[in-house]
Amino acid sequence: MASAARPWGFASSVAAAAHVLAPALDESIVVDGADGHHLERVRRLRVGEIVTVADGAGAWRRYVVDATGRGRLDLAADGDVHHEPRLEPGLAVAFGVGKGAKPEVVVSGLTELGVDRIVPLLAARAVVRWDAERAAAVVDRLRRVAREATLQCRRARLPTVEAAVGLEDLGTQGVVVVGDPAGASVHTLRLPAAGEWLVVVGPEGGLTAHERAALLARPGAVAVAVGPHVLRTETAALAVAAALSGRRQPVREVPQR
After folding, report:
1. Nearest Cα to Cα of residue 106 among 10, 171, 199
2. Sign of the C-alpha dihedral, residues 92, 97, 102, 103?
3. Greater confidence, 35 or 133?
4. The pairing of beta strand 196-201 with beta strand 175-185
5. First vs last Cα of the chain: how many Å apart?
6. Mean pLDDT of the 95-109 span
7. How many CA atoms lie less than 13 Å away from 110 in the CB half-sphere?
8. How far apart are CA 155 and CA 52, in angstroms?
9. Which of 30-34, 50-54, 236-240, 249-253 comes out lowest in average pLDDT?
10. CATH 2.40.240.20 occupies which residues in the chain?
11. What is the pLDDT of residue 172?
12. What is the mean pLDDT of the segment spanning 8-16?
């Protein structure tokens, strides 16, 4: 546990012009590359404006723009290092991948909702079929989307976007929550004694009867619904995550890096 004297809070509470990620929260930071170009050339940030900077693992700090160059910002620390509370219980979402931009929409929305782990799911009825090279490229793109969404919503903790897996490789951590319009209300779901909620949402066409039965056979697994209608994969993933996010509580615990 961290010392009680450590400053805690969320970077989103600061009236900052922008939010960026950096490997270390030093007294001075240079923002260049794609981030520097966007902030200086597109957003046109100027000297004196406030920027929050996070390390992606929960620490963040307020900075002031000290100087600008072509596609570059020089930042000077303007406060102590703070730490974003971890939200408990943990929340992971495995969603059936779809065509086009749908996976990007899901990952962006889940990041904004504070989800900790995001898992592209290759279920039996998935429309897309990826070989190893294609799967790796898609996951890399989804990680970039998660990073961009982290900057937009001003999270200090970058979510983990895991490699695409089948149901048999989902792991057994936490309580499995299956999105299903025939399930119980998501608001009746009990808090897990330990671990996390792992939300599983099938692809277009849903999970097969075999997949659904295998998931619900896990200890503590439950089917939940956020309404009486059949939702699209991307809608269901975001709806269940949003309902569960509202029940999570901040915990002042510094993560192990």
Report:
1. 199
2. positive
3. 35
4. parallel
5. 14
6. 86
7. 35
8. 10
9. 249-253
10. 11-83
11. 66
12. 95
Residue 44 scores a pLDDT above 80? yes
The helix (run of H) or strand (run of E) holding residue 65 is strand 59-69
For residue 29 the two structure tokens come to 């930071």
Residue that is written with structure tokens 């939300």 in the block: 199
pLDDT, position 134 = 85
Say which residue the tokens 């004196």 belong to: 48
Encode pLDDT of 25-34 as tens digits: 999 999 999 9
Q: What CA–CA distance (Å, rounded) separates 85 from 250?
A: 5
Which residue type occupies 90?
Answer: G
Q: Which of the listed CATH numbers 2.102.30.10, 2.40.240.20, 1.10.10.10, 3.40.50.2300 matches domain 11-83?
A: 2.40.240.20
State mean pLDDT over 6-17. Answer: 92
**Nearest one of 215, 115, 97 to 224, comparing CA atoms:** 215
CATH 3.20.20.10: does it fit domain 87-251? no
pLDDT at 193 over 90: no
Give alpha helix (H) positions in the chain.
33-37, 102-112, 132-153, 209-216, 233-245
Q: What are phi and psi of 149, to 5 degrees?
A: -70, -35
